[in-house]
Amino acid sequence: MIKLHDKYFESYISANKLNTTIAKMAQLVYKECADEIPLFVGILNGSFMFAADFVRAYPGQCEISFVKLASYQGTESAGKVKKLVGLSEDVTNRTVIILEDIIDTGTTLEEIYTIFRHKKLKQLKIATLLYKPDVYKKGLHIDYIGLHVPDKFVVGYGLDYNGLGRNLSDIFTLTKPTMTNIVLFGPPGAGKGTQADVLKDKYALKHISTGDVFRYNIKNETPLGNLAKSYMDKGDLVPDEVTINMLKQEVERHKDANGFIFDGFPRTEDQAKALDTFLAEKGATINGMVALEVPEDLLVERLLKRGETSGRPDDQDESKIRNRFNEYQNKTAILKDYYAQQGKYYGIDGVGSIEEITERLTKVFDKL
Ligand code: IMP
Ligand code: MG
User: Fold this and answer.
1) How far is the CA of 272 from the centre of ligand 2 (A)?
2) What is the pTM of this model?
3) Rounded Cα gap, residues 77 and 153, in angstroms
4) Ligand 1 center–CA 287 separation, angstroms
5) Is 49 helix (H, G, I), strand (E, B) or coil?
């Protein structure tokens, strides 16, 4: 799943499928006008990719030109079209074949058709890669159709959503993320658990604390739990595969959840990628990584204090705590970059009262 502006899209027609479709179209057109040199006219901007691939697949000689005429502003046809610009060729007595990326209501096509009809062509034909039969309102015959698509907004392969998505090789269709998923991030003792408890109720999300999931599995001596235990006792991170499988199990246990707050997971880039893949299968994504930023000395202080009451052996020994920080620094800080690159990183000042920090987090959660 990908995000363009405020909307989510999922892959719908693969680049491969587009390729074979276009090759077939080019062959068919060639068969019907092999004894002349047709002038293909691509309608910009949307048809630039289709036109390029189409003429590359066209077995004979041809000319190509582009004209511009735009009718779209958002995800709905605006109903109004602009003027045609850019045609410098003499089209008298020529076979002109219009190359359209998509025909929706047909308004654009009709305008173009009308303009060409007044020129003294030999013949005018229309080829479109995509066609929406449920929305097409015009009587005009379309000579070559690549693929029929339902009345759904699509992007990619030249088609855009408010300017974005034209460069994608596949065609994508609008989708709704079914869940909101947040990675709550920060070093041990940053207050993730405390904040997650408040936020999960406020936003009706399921809180998955990796530590709790581990302790549950260990306590019940599940195979994954026994494996994880040996690593945790040393203050080391559990290998990715074990962790990922445990987390997957936990997500699967809550099929009806609105979404999850992941706390303590992912901790490595491999885990983050595994999580993305896993969520994508469910039509979901990570909406954001929210990180609590707290200075290390304050953290050690907090953890030793927690160790007095929590009974967790890894909270009672300062060297074990420092070891966890090293692990954190060495391996997990990379994740900040991973999510930042996708525009999904939100750093939060984690020093202050619980309420103050909750308020800072709420401001970010509201946006996600
Ligand atoms: P029509 O005039 O309603 O047939 O719309 C034609 C133009 O609208 C196309 O050339 C595209 O630029 C745009 N368009 C129609 N449907 C879509 C879509 O699903 N995604 C992106 N653009 C579209
Ligand atoms: Mg177009």
Assistant:
1) 37
2) 0.61
3) 10
4) 29
5) helix
